[in-house]
Amino acid sequence: MINAALHEPFFFSIAKHKMTVVGTDGSYTKPLTRDYITIFPGQTFDVLLEANQRPDHYYMAAIAFSLAPAGRNLYDNTTTTAIVQYRGYYTPSSPPFLPHLPAYNDTNASVHGVYEDNFPSVPPVVFDFTTDYLPLLYRLKPEQNFYVVGWGFGNFDENRDPMRYNLVDPPHHNTISVPKNGWECGSCTAI
Predict the structure, then answer these.
(1) Fewer CB atoms inside 10 Å of the end CB: C or N, the chain?
(2) How far is it, in rounded angstroms, from Cα 67 to Cα 80?
(3) pLDDT band at 66 (very low <50, low <70, confident <90, very high)
(4) Taking 50 as the threshold, does the pLDDT of residue 115 lie above it?
(5) Coil, helix or strand for 164?
(6) How far apart are CA 78 and CA 60, in angstroms?
(7) Does residue 117 carry a pLDDT above 50?
(8) Distances 106 to 20, 33, 41, 110 between C-alpha atoms, Å
(9) Which of 165, 64, 63, 152 is nearest to 115 (CA)?
């Protein structure tokens, strides 16, 4: 699965089915099973779907994640759908089952938790993103990936935010989306 959108992250779900993410951005990960996933622009996920429901039609659906106010029409709040159709002879439900998706602005809905086990012990560069100007201090090589150890909204708090870092098994990515008015903390290793 790839999010080929230019700006919008998406929530994606299939009615009455769980999905298991087994890879992100070309790297195998510790399997993570969820009712829905959040995928950001440019990210790719390897997802397994177990067809373990009774034969029927089930909607798969995606909606854009946005922090824009709902009443101002600043984002496309439509839901895109398709149907997963089981093989066999049966009379499908009418209408097909719809999946549950998070609210368009649910900042807690994410896929954090898709991890690898070989996390580096020391970050090679320390970043400070709390300044007024954010120069690019370190440029990754095109083939270099990184581990996302944390992210948040608002200014980074050096006393509170590191306590929430995932230093055990952070997700391994080659593409990341920094939240609007937020921050990301990553670590990379030389290839």
Answers:
(1) C
(2) 19
(3) confident
(4) no
(5) helix
(6) 14
(7) no
(8) 21, 19, 17, 9
(9) 165
| Amino acid at the residue 182 | G
Name the residue type at position 72.
R
From the number of C-beta atoms within 10 Å of its C-beta (0-12, 13-18, 19+), residue 28 rates as exposed
Residue 19 has φ and ψ, to the nearest 5°, of -115, 145
Among residues 119, 141, 134, which one has the least CA distance to residue 184?
134
Q: What is the mean pLDDT of residues 21-35?
A: 84
pLDDT at 3: 86
What single string gives the DSSP state of each residue in 80-119? EEEEEE--SS----SSPBPPP---TT-TT---TT---S--
The answer to whether the beta carbons of residues 105 and 67 sit under 8 Å apart is: yes
Is the preceding omega at residue 95 within 30 degrees of 0, hence cis? yes
Q: What is the predicted pLDDT for the residue at 105?
A: 73
- Quick check: 8 and 43 in contact, CB under 8 A? no
* pTM for the predicted model, two decimal places: 0.66
Q: Among 62, 54, 52, which Cα is nearest to 17's?
A: 52
User: What pLDDT is recorded for position 119?
Assistant: 44
- How many other C-beta atoms can be found within 10 angstroms of the C-beta atom of residue 24? 25
User: And the tokens for 131?
Assistant: 């300044």
